[in-house]
Design goal:
- It is a single chain.
- The protein contains 7 helices and 10 strands.
- By secondary structure, it is α/β, with parallel strands linked by helices.
- α5 links the parallel β9 and β10.
- α1 runs antiparallel to α2.
- The longest helix has 18 residues.
Length: 211
Amino acid sequence: MKELIAKDLLSIGAVFFRPNEPFTWASGIRSPIYCDNRLTLTSPAVRNDVENALAETIKREYPDAELLMGTSTAGIAHAAITAHILGLPMGYVRSGAKDHGRGNQIEGKLIPGQKTVVVEDLISTGGSVIEVVNVLREAGADVIGIVSIFTYGMKKGLDRLKEANVKNVSLTDFDCISQVAADEGYIAPEDVKRLIKFRNDPSDESWIGEK
């Protein structure tokens, strides 16, 4: 599954590698990778692979799941489609409470104690998805885990997930997609080590320009 999803994401440019011309993140960090998993929604074949893989992962890893909650905004559509496949209710968590109406931050019905899986598209440092987990827990949800399409596997993210005592299972990851990118000719084989060096310490830019 990891390789299939990696090939899918690369084929539509949802995960795009450019080790010799790094992208610049909002934080100022230069990165060899650009991720836009929203593109999966506009490719029916890839979308089908992703949503079925999310459903199978939830059935395997979280068989007791009673509710799916998407992250705003990227996880909402994936949570909705996957919930439809599984016949489960879904909702989503806003980045902040509304300033009008009922002031909801959680949209959809949540019953206290309900076994909930958070659906996310991408995990890097883990901060945003853990905020969602905390909001749900404060509302009484029993968050049994996270399922995501792609994860960098960065130490900061892994440490944060561990500290929050929440499990994440991703369809594919940085190591897999880097190797598939090399195998499929998107990048040179020797670039894989440079990419892993970035993943291990994004603040260390010594990988840039290496041969």
